[in-house]
Amino acid sequence: MSEIATGASLPKTADGTGLAHRLRHNPWVLRIASVALLLIAWQLFGNRYSTSFPTDVARAFPHSFVHDVVPALGDTLKGFFAGFAASIVIGVPIGLLMARSRLVELALEPYVNALYATPRLALIPVLILWLGIDFQMRFAVVLVSGVFPIILNTYLGAKEVDRNLLDAGKAYAAGELQILRTIVIPASLPFIFAGFRLGLARSFIGIIVAEIETSVLGIGNLINQDAKTLRFDGMWVAIITLGVLSIIFSTFLKRTEAWTTRPWERKGMAPWPFRR
Amino acid sequence: MWLVRIVTFLIILGIWQLWAQHKQKAIAATPKEFVQAVWHQLVTDGTFFGPLWSSMEAFVLGVGLSLLIGIPVGIAMGRWRSVEHTIDPYVSFLYAIPHVAFVPIMIVWLGFRLEFRLAYVVISAVFPVIINTMTGVKAVDEQLLDAGKSFCADEKTLVRTVILPSASPYIVAGGRQAMSAAWVGVVVAEVLSTQDGLGGLINKYSDEFLTADMYVPIIGIMVIAVTIQFFAGWLQRKLTPWTNAAQREREGG
Questions:
Q1: Which domains, from first to last, does chain A contain?
Q2: Cβ atoms of residues A124 and A210 within 8 Å
Q3: Chain A closest-CA separation from residue B127 CA (Å)
Q4: Maximum CA extent, chain B
Q5: Domain for residue B38, yes or no?
Q6: Which end of chain A is more exposed for a tag (fewer CB within 10 A), N or C?
Q7: Which of B81, B96, B192 lies at the smallest CB-CB distance from A247?
Q8: Are the beta carbons of B100 and A118 separated by less than 8 Å?
Q9: What element of type H or E holds A12?
Q10: pLDDT tens, position by position, A122-150
């Protein structure tokens, strides 16, 4: 315990078994203390800034969750899952096609790049005009938000595939489909998943913007209506649910990614290569 | 190469024309009407420029504020564990949640004007700066820090002469992400608050069913976004020329 450590790393080898020491170095102590402080301050000063108190939010939670949040989430998630599934079904093949065919690449690359870089949320008013305010519009908003990150990441990932592997495949007379299935797709999976994650985040934002804009259905509308009518406790319930939900989604994707890509685990590749 | 691109462009124009010409004018506008609207808004009337400046104002101020807040917070979080763990629950929560959910309450608190737009832009843009700066500060070579300390450098000197130069590629990459995120923030805030800027212009024309005119701010927003991206990439190469392209990608640029 009191052994003299040698060299410059002296402070780091300090004994880490004492309770006080462990408390001081456990990040959760500070995290919980910090959140608790915020909640107390909110409880004390909340009144002054026209918001509700944490205790109100807690009291409103069961009722508001069951009667407002769950039905609203149902509407949101219907459009969300349909749109996101379509983004994957459309985005991945287009990305692969762009990477494998020079013609498609030349034709589509400028548009994909430009649309990827632009705030596609600016298109929401047009989509509302064309498609109304119902399921179709939500579906389209999610598709427009989610498909471009997926296309671009799939394309970039499939372009990065080791040439030697492709040549080896060709040397053994593999057909295009076989090359895709056994070389290109496995090798670009981490990129494809990075695209999914980005697309997921963007689509979620897209659908909420659309719901606030149209104020008919969904969780975005619920938050907006609650804020407008100064029902802040209900609003916080919805916001917190939304936060938890997005954390669950991204964790789910991360797990799926780890599970799918483990067989080909490559060292030195950043897990989020194309976050822009 | 250019042949393919021109042919694709013409095909898209053709589809647009065919699709739009049999629709009502309130629903869809043809390419010709769009060009007329561009000419009208940019040259003869100049109605495009007022909202454009208003948007750019929110963008520039928002990016500036995000850097001003994000870099010190990022440095503090990277330097001291206690600060990191005090702040990181909020950073992770706010980074994970779609922050548009806060727009309604922000409108209640801040109104519809510049304060609201600025606050939303900062919420959109500050987290990439914080996270990148923190990563950069943590990645500073221990030996350099030890060398600095053994020559009795105080915290201020250490930050100025060792940490900032060493973390600068990360900070610049964060700034680049922040610029893209900030422009999205400007547009979202404007589309939702229905008053100012190019986003407000979209809403105005959309409410009046002036579809051809509505395309102009939309395309304008896209052109500006691409320009911002190019400008930010150029700035990154100018500011940190010693990092190569692959490294920039890895650092999330």
A1: 1-49 (no CATH), 58-264 (1.10.3720.10)
A2: yes
A3: 13
A4: 78
A5: no
A6: N
A7: B96
A8: no
A9: none
A10: 888 888 888 888 888 889 999 999 999 99
Residue B210: inside a domain: yes
Touching check for A201 and chain B: CB below 8 Å? yes
- Of A192, A168, A193, A195, which Cα lies nearest the Cα of A182? A168
Which CATH number is B237's domain given?
1.10.3720.10
> Could you tell me if residue B186 is inside a domain?
yes
The predicted model scores a pTM of 0.82
pLDDT at B123 over 70: yes
* Structural domain contains residue B69: yes
> Could you give the CA distance from residue A273 to residue A155 in angstroms, rounded to a whole number?
13
Could you tell me if A161 and A187 are in contact, meaning their C-beta atoms sit under 8 angstroms apart? yes
Task: Tokens 């762009």: give the residue.
Answer: A98
Tens digits of residue pLDDT in B41-56: 887 887 888 888 989 9
Helix axes A232-261, B103-110, angle to 10 degrees: 140
**DSSP 8-state symbol, B97:** S
Q: How many domains are contained in chain B? A: 1
Residues 6+ apart with CB under 8 A from A179: A166, A169, A170
Long-range contacts, stretch A246-252, CB < 8 angstroms, 24+ apart: A246/A201, A246/A204, A246/B96, A246/B97, A246/B98, A247/B96, A249/A200, A249/A204, A250/A197, A250/A200, A250/A201, A250/B96
Chain A interface includes B135 (CB < 8 A):
no
Q: What is the pLDDT of residue A47?
A: 64
- Give pLDDT tens digits for A22-80: 777 777 888 888 888 888 887 777 666 556 777 777 887 788 777 888 888 888 888 89
